[in-house]
Specification:
Layout (H helix, E strand, L loop, with lengths): L10 H11 L2 E6 L4 E7 L3 H4 L3 E2 L1 H9 L17 H4 L6 E7 L8 E9 L6 E7 L2 H18 L2 E8 L4 E7 L13 H8 L8 H7 L2 H7 L5 E9 L5 E10 L9 E8 L1 H19 L9 H18 L3 E8 L2 H8 L1 H19 L4 E7 L2 E7 L3 H17 L10 E7 L6 H17 L5 E3 L1
Parallel strand pairs: 15-16
Antiparallel strand pairs: 1-2, 1-6, 2-3, 4-5, 5-6, 7-8, 7-11, 9-10, 10-11, 12-14, 12-15, 13-14
Helix pairs in contact: 11-12, 12-13
């Protein structure tokens, strides 16, 4: 066919060339959710089925991650049917993976709507090696630039439309969506973290955007949102109103930026400093300020919810002699071991442990009445008595126990438990007293 003069080529030659060279031709009918493959060659012969669901075909062709054949989560496939409607010719590049192959096949898709019909022709051609190489290099550059931006689109609030939608993890190309902004907003809210949904709906409301964005203004806020794998990550939602010449023109660019790694690191650092602020550095239990705050919380809970709450005050016996005879390093080691016993015995019982000061500790027992708290205190006392402390051997502790009352003030509750512990000391130590 290539030996003819250009003036000798006919329509029949074009049709013949097309039949010989196109890699795949598919006719689709969205109204019946069906397609039929007319031509398939090369790897597409294995990739494409003879016929099937048009919805499934769209999923196979581009609702997978850009660098693998792994499908996006089911939640995001709610947008599939909005991508398969075409009013005019449409073209885009696809990365398709056959089976477990690691290398993608780069394919050009062209959609031709059939006149006077809701049906389409899908024409697919695989790039040759040189084209694939150039395409790969181009995509690498684009991915480097867009790596932190997961999603972008253009919004026209007046006409309630979306356009130029790009989902970077699916494709470097703009994806064809036929979706109103009002529809998109109510669909995407299902991907927002439950506690952030109300804020998302408020900040994306068309009236809010019109009221709060002057021409050219950009604003953003952070929230948690499902990625295409169905995992919640931290993202920055960015709205920017176009710099137009009319106050009645409400067009916006909307972008979703992946800030998860940085946000997780910041939150981890904040939690570390929060823990440092409420933790006793020697024993790693709550410090005085935090256990006092927790005791006030327990009093409020007792008054409002009527839940039984009891408190233990625990003091190591003759601790001063340990520091005097063995040194403060040994004394510190004993306090660490002692705090470890309290955590081991109390925390599984829905209790909080804090260091009140020196060798005194407070244990707040939620859901335990006086009798139950007394039994826990006795178990702790026995555990301490038989424990082999480093460089010391055996030491004992004295405890006071009280159940909080509806009309207790902080001073009344504290004085009662302090007196109970004092009575244990006065009555020979290594005892538990309930008041």
């Amino acid at each position: 066919m290539g030996d003819k003069n250009v003036a000798d080529y006919k329509v029949e030659d074009v049709a013949k060339f097309f039949l010989e060279n196109v890699d795949a031709a598919i006719v689709v009918d969205p109204s019946t959710d069906s397609y039929n493959t007319i031509i398939k060659k090369g790897f597409l012969e294995k990739y494409l089925k003879e016929s099937g669901s048009y919805h499934d075909l769209i999923v196979d062709l581009w609702f997978h991650f850009n660098d693998s054949n792994e499908k996006v989560s089911d939640d995001y496939q709610v947008f599939v049917d909005n991508t398969g409607i075409f009013k005019k010719k449409y073209s885009r590049k696809l990365k398709l993976f056959l089976g477990d192959e690691e290398e993608a096949h780069l394919v050009q898709l062209v959609v031709y709507p059939l006149s006077k019909s809701d049906k389409y022709f899908f024409i697919l051609d695989e790039f040759d090696d040189d084209g694939s190489l150039q395409e790969s290099l181009t995509n690498t550059k684009i991915s480097t630039i867009q790596s932190s931006y997961l999603f972008s689109m253009y919004i026209d609030l007046v006409n309630d439309t979306t356009s130029s939608i790009n989902v970077t993890e699916i494709s470097d190309d703009v994806i064809n969506y036929n979706l109103k902004y009002s529809e998109w907003r109510l669909m995407i809210v299902n991907m927002i973290w439950p506690e952030d949904k109300e804020q998302f709906l408020r900040r994306t409301d068309p009236e809010y955007l019109k009221k709060n964005f002057s021409r050219g203004r950009t604003a953003s806020y952070d929230c948690m949102m499902q990625n295409l794998e169905g995992k919640y990550i931290w993202v920055k939602l960015i709205f920017s109103r176009a710099q137009t010449y009319s106050d009645d023109d409400y067009r916006f660019v909307f972008m979703v930026q992946d800030i998860n790694e940085n946000s997780v690191e910041i939150l981890s650092t904040l939690k570390k400093y929060e823990a440092m602020a409420i933790t006793d550095p020697l024993t790693s239990v709550f410090n005085h300020g935090e256990i006092e705050k927790q005791l006030n919380n327990a009093l409020s809970l007792r008054k409002n919810d009527k839940e039984a709450v009891s408190v233990l005050m625990v003091d190591l016996d003759m601790f001063k002699s340990i520091n005097d005879n063995h040194g403060h390093a040994v004394g510190d080691a004993a306090l660490k071991d002692f705090a470890g016993i309290l955590r081991e015995m109390a925390v599984p019982c829905k209790a909080l442990v804090g260091r009140w000061g020196g060798e005194e500790f407070v244990v707040i027992c939620y859901g335990k009445n006086a009798k139950e708290a007394y039994a826990l205190a006795e178990n702790i006392r026995k555990k301490v008595e038989y424990f082999e402390f480093r460089d010391i051997g055996h030491i004992t502790c004295s405890m006071g126990v009280t159940e909080l009352r509806d009309d207790d003030t902080f001073e009344e509750a504290f004085n009662r438990i302090d007196k109970a512990m004092y009575d244990s000391k006065q009555n020979g130590r290594n005892k538990v007293t309930l008041l």
